[in-house]
Inverse folding.
C-alpha cells in the first residue's frame, strides 16, 4: 500500500493545506476564505471560520458605469460541494506586495 | 487478513471495506451529523434550515421540520415539513461548529487522499 508523503499531483498540494487557511474561488463570483478541515477528489470541502464574499456588478441607469459591490458573511463551519469550486490557493497576501514582487518592481 | 474494524470514537469510515475506510469521507461525515440542525443552501439561492434526517452516497439529503431561513422572499414552503434535496443542487451546508471534530476530519482527509492515489 502506497503511503507516499511526496507531492506528486495537484490534490497533493491541497493536502498540504489541511488545517491551514485557504482561498477558494467559486462559480458565480463567489470567494471563500477559511480553514481547510477536509476535502476529497471532487473538491468537496469542509471549511471552518469562513468568510464568503459575493461580488455583483450594478449598472448605473444613467451613466452606465459598472459599480462593483461585494457582500460578505461569516459562517463558523461549512460544507462546500465540489462542483462549485473553481480554484484553491493559499490565502492571497497583500495584493499590492505580491503583484509588485512578481513584476520585479520590489 | 480478517480485520476487526475498531472505530476510535469516530463515525467516519465505518461503512466498511476490508480496511475500514471507504472513498466516501463526506458520506460518513454526514451520517455522523444525522439528527443535527443544518442549513442547506441551494444553487438557486434558496436556504433551507432543518434537521438532518438522512444522507446517501450521492450526498442527497433528507431534512425534517424545515423552514426557509433567509427572509422569505424565496418560495414560501410554509406547508412543507420534510424534504428531499438532490445532492447536485446543493451549494453549501452550514454546520454546527461544535458538532464537528476537526482533528478527526483532517486525519480522515489525509487518509482518503492517500487512498485515492491508488
Amino acid at each position: 500500500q502506497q503511503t507516499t508523503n511526496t507531492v506528486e499531483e495537484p490534490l497533493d498540494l491541497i493536502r498540504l493545506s489541511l488545517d491551514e487557511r485557504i482561498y477558494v474561488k467559486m462559480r458565480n463570483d463567489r470567494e471563500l476564505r477559511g480553514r481547510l478541515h477536509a476535502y476529497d477528489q471532487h473538491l468537496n470541502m469542509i471549511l471552518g471560520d469562513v468568510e464568503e464574499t459575493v461580488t455583483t456588478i450594478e449598472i448605473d441607469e444613467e451613466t452606465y458605469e459598472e459599480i462593483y459591490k461585494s457582500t460578505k458573511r461569516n459562517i463558523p463551519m461549512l460544507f462546500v460541494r465540489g462542483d462549485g469550486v473553481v480554484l484553491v490557493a493559499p490565502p492571497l497576501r497583500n495584493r499590492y506586495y505580491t503583484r509588485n514582487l512578481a513584476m520585479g518592481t520590489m | 487478513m480478517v480485520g476487526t474494524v475498531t472505530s476510535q470514537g469516530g463515525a467516519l469510515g465505518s461503512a466498511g471495506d476490508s480496511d475500514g475506510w471507504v472513498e466516501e469521507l463526506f458520506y460518513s461525515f454526514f451520517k455522523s451529523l444525522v439528527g443535527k440542525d443544518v442549513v442547506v443552501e441551494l444553487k438557486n439561492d434558496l436556504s433551507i434550515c432543518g434537521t438532518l434526517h438522512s444522507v446517501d452516497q450521492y450526498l442527497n439529503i433528507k431534512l425534517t421540520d424545515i423552514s426557509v431561513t433567509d427572509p422569505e422572499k424565496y418560495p414560501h414552503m410554509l406547508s412543507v415539513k420534510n424534504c428531499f434535496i438532490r445532492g447536485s443542487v446543493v451549494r453549501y451546508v452550514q454546520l454546527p461548529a461544535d458538532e464537528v471534530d476537526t482533528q478527526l476530519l483532517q486525519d480522515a482527509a489525509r487518509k482518503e487522499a492517500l487512498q485515492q492515489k491508488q
